[in-house]
Structure formats: structure tokens, C-alpha cells
Amino acid sequence: MTALLAYTVFGLVTGGAYAVVAGGLVLTYSTSKVFNVGHGAIGMVMAFLYWELAENRGLPQWLALLLVVGVCAPLFGLVVERFIMRRLAGAPVGITLVAGVGVLVGLIGVAQVIWPPMARPVRPFLDQLGIHIGQSFVSGHDLVTLVCAVLVAGGLYVLLNRTRTGLAMRACVDAPELASLYGTRPTRLSALSWAIGSALAALGGILLTPVVQLDYVTMTLLVITAYTAALVGRLRSLPWTFAGALGLGLVQSYAVAYLPSSPFWISFRAAIPALSLFIVLLVMPQSPLRIGGVRGTRGVATPSAATTWVAAGLFGATAVVLALLVDPVVAGQLALALVFGIVLLSMVLLTGYGGVVSLGQFTFVGVGAVTVARLGSASPVALLIGAGVAAAVGALIALTALRVSGLYLALATLGFAQLMDKLVLQSPIAFGVRGSLQVPKLIESASGQLLLAAGVFVLVGAGVLAIRRGRLGRRMIAVKDSSAACATLGLNVRWIRVWVFSLSAAIAGLAGGLFAQLRETVAASDFQLFNNLPLLLFAVIAGVTSVSGALLGGVLLMLLPVLQSGFPAFAGVAVVLLGVAAAGLARDPNGLVSWGFRAWSWRRA
Asked: Which UniProt keywords apply (predicted)?
């Protein structure tokens, strides 16, 4: 009974910190209709800043907390709202998601530049104080966390439901023009909500720091639990959000206490936030959301079949010349760039044509790589089997998540990616106890690998363009533009989505098989959850609506670790630039290659 009480207290404390973070997320969404994926990254950076002031600079804890939560975090929220989110007002959910991912990745880069990796212990609040409940001790930090959770939940409820400012915030979301006629200022109210939301993200991050320690990715992705709590409240009910956060904290605490200590159950405990997110998305009543597709004002032109094969011939000839001229190291890097390009072709099909934002596409690459590695065969058949297994997994996810769309579907892919990461890819199920597998090469020479990757890229790229010109492609574009209109005309929107998910996953699985035999050794670290986020950003920066964009994105994705290893001081700066570029180009998912298309069209005109 004593242990049960202790774990209950621990769960309530952790859930209280989640409630603080989730409250800020609900506030920004309910007053701006923008789901801030970078909410956890804001809390992470502010927690590092708190460490800098309180531990490294020696300021009193209360003063450091006041400066971070009361000054720095609100100012940062104002900057994000003014220069990023205000420009995306009224944009589809997919575009705001990409901008949020850009903020997330950029902030991780900022933290890496300012605070290089090292152990940074953080003292709890009031660590000398506490009370005893039975035989369990509740520390001062635990009491502060619980009090903050209750005050934040109550304060936000009063703000949004009992004050003129809160009512005006909600009115400006529903009808900003009408609200302006009554004297409200929508831009100021939006800025206020983002300032408060950032302050709450900072407070939640600081409260969680003594429990999880300061880590860039861990603290950023810890907010997945806050996402789940916010979705329990359907992104608008603060009492249900508070209850959901406490419930999730208790579930995690009891899992630590009473589940077995075998490797599988250890992985299962780590996957509880993602599993909860997935379950909540599937069982909760759906609320109307804007279409979640990534759309540009005008997509790039689709080439004809003749033009496609002429371009394929020129590309193949270029690949042959490069294979003959470059040294083996460069040939291997170019082959890797083409493999990444094939992965991005799967996103052209899914996101560019299908309008579905996926935050877990690299997981299918891992499925294909593990399948090929487990088969242990250096043959094209193994690559096709890997693609088939990935397609089956993609179809299963699509069938499971058929009832959700837009924002909910994107978050479902994030939950699926973390489930696969914790339960399969990071466990002995995939890579054994050593955490890595040897993969025989299909072709030994680096030049041969380059030609193989080029050939597969040409075939997959031509196939993607053929799908776009065909009946399925026209239906995909129609569904992306208006799924309601397509359903009215009798199209089976759900099965179109299943086909798109399956084909996209198959392409990613094929790329995973090529990646495995190119690297010869694949490990669990190659397919971590965080790898999905730069993939989406490179796709949008280069151009997620064209095969040329996939090729450019693959090259950029290959160059990023090369530049980071060659210039270690540039590593964090590169991540910052990646996030800034993605946030800036979120409005134009046709990407950098569209500039070339427009220049060519102007020259011809």
C-alpha cells in the first residue's frame, strides 16, 4: 500500500507538469487554430536557459524562474507569432504543421549551438522542504508542480470563459473581421495567447527537468504526452485536458511500478505516451478540422510520358559519367543521396499529390531495411519483399486511421512512428541484442551501387509521374482539394487513402532495402523517431510536389551530415538554418525547384 501511494504521488506530479504544458497547447490552438508542434521545443530551450541562469550564473532559483517564465518565454512567443504564425493565418493545417516542425528543429539546433552536449544537473525547487503522507515523502518540488498545475488549469479556464479578453480571443478565431468591427484587435490578442502559451511551455519544461534531465530530443518529444492530454480535451476543454494529463501521469507511474522488467516491457513503458496518443485519436469523437493537405498556390507542371523518358535518359547518362569519373567515396555518397531521393519520392506521392502530412515516413524505411537485413540475401527479390512488407504496414496504418484526417492524421502518424521506434526498431525484435545487423551488398563496387541507385530512382520517379497522370493521380489531387466534394460525387475517399499510403510505404521500404545493403551494417540508431522530422523539412524545402524536388532534397539530406562532420562547429547552425528555411517556405511546398521552373518558363516566354 505504501508503494502504491508513492507511485500515485509520483504519477500525479508528473501528470501535473504535463497539464501545464498541455494547457499552453490548448490555449494557443483554441485562440489561433494553430497546433504548435514546436511547443515542446520551446519548453526545452527555456529549461536550458533556466539552467544557465540558476545553475551556471548563480542567480536565485525564484529570480531565474521569473526571468525565464515571465520575460524570455513570452517575448519568444511574441516573436514566433509575429514573424511565423501570423503569416500563416488561414493556411491549411498541413502548412502550419510544417512551420511548427521547422520551429522545433530550429530550436534544437539553437540549443546545440549555445549549450553543447554535457551533463547538466538541475536542483529541484524547495528541495529541503516537503511533507509526509503516510510513509511516502512528497518533496517541495512535487508540491510546487501540483500547485502550478491547479493554478494554470483554473487560471486558463477563467481567462477563456469568464473574462472579456478570453472571449474576444475565441471570437477572433471564429470571425476576426466581425470581431474587429466591435473594437477588438485580433493581432494583439493572438500575440497575447502565444506569449502565455510559450510561458506555460517554459514552466512545464522547467518543472519536468529534475525528472528527465536536460536533453535536446528527449525533452522535445516528451511533449507527445502533452499532445495526448490536449486531445483528450479535444483541443478546447481545459478540465478534460487537466484530467487527461493526470491520468497519463498515473498510467506511466503504475507501469514503472507493476509491469515486468523484461526488455519488451521496458520498451512498452517507453511507448506508453505514443500508444495513448494513438488510442485517443482513434476513439475520440471527431471535430471539424480544416483540410490537412500541403498545397501550393499552383503545383508544378506534370511532364508528359515522352518528356519523362527523355529526362530519364539524360539522368541515366549523367549517372554513368559520374560513376566513371568520381572516386569510390564520392560515388557512395551520391548513391546515398539517390536513396534519400527515393524516400522523398514516397513523400511526393503521399504529401505532394495526396495532401497527407506524415510525421513518420522514415519508419517505413526502417521496416524495409530490417526486412532485407533479416532475409540476409543480396538479391532484388529481397528488396521487393522489403517493399511489400512496408506496403502492408502502411495499409494497416491507413485502415486503422481511416476515420481521422488533417491534424489528427498527422499526429496519428507521429504516434505510430514512436510506437514502432520503441516497440520494434529500438528493441531486440528488429536488430537483436547487439542492436545492429550485417547486410550483404547487392553490388560490391561503389560505382555499381551508384548506377543501381540511379536506375531505381529513375524507375520509381517515372512510376510516380505515371500515377500522377493516371486515374489514381487525378483522384488523389481531387481528394486533396476537396474530399467532401469527391465523396459527394461517389468517390471512395477512404480506399484512395489506403492506396496512397500503401504505395508510399512501398517506395519508402524499397529505399530502406537499398539503404541497408549500401551501408552493409544497419543499426537501431539509423531509424530513430527524430529522423522523421528533417525528412519532412527537406521535402518541403526542396519541393514536395515534384520528382526534381525529391532529387534535390535527397542531395541536401546527404550533404547535411557530411557538412556537420567536416565542420563540427557548423552542426547546430545547419539545423537552425534548416528549421528557418522550412518555416519560411511552408507557404510554398513547391519548394526551391519551383524557382527554377518559373525561371525556365520566363525564359521561354
From this structure: Amino-acid transport, Cell membrane, Membrane, Transmembrane, Transmembrane helix, Transport
Cell of 57: 550564473
How far apart CA 146 and CA 202 sit, in angstroms, is 16
Rounded to an integer, what distance in angstroms lies between the CA atom of residue 189 and that of residue 168? 8
Residues contacting residue 196 through CB under 8 Å, at least 6 positions apart: 24, 27, 74, 77
CATH architecture of 2-258: Orthogonal Bundle (1.10)
Strand partners, 47: none
Look-up of cell digits 519541393: 543
Model confidence over 493-551: pLDDT tens digits? Answer: 778 888 888 999 999 999 999 998 888 888 878 888 778 888 888 888 888 888 888 99
| Tens-place pLDDT, residues 166-215 | 777 766 666 666 666 566 677 777 888 889 989 999 998 888 887 777 88
**Whether the Cβ atoms of residue 432 and residue 263 lie closer than 8 Å to each other:** no
Contact 496, 483 (CB under 8 A): no
State how far the Cα of 473 lies from the Cα of 480, in Å rounded to an integer: 11
**Which element (helix H / strand E) includes 566?**
helix 547-566
Opening angle at CA 22, ends 16 and 23, nearest 5: 90
Domain boundaries, the chain: 2-258, 305-529
* pTM confidence score: 0.86
* Alpha-helical runs (H) found in 139-237: 140-162, 164-174, 176-181, 186-212, 216-221, 223-232
Backbone φ, ψ for residue 139 (5° rounding): -75, 165
- DSSP per residue over 477-515, as a string? HHHHH-HHHHHHTT--HHHHHHHHHHHHHHHHHHHHHHH
What is d(CA 113, CA 571) in angstroms, rounded to the nearest whole number?
A: 8
Enter the C-alpha cell of residue 464. 510516380
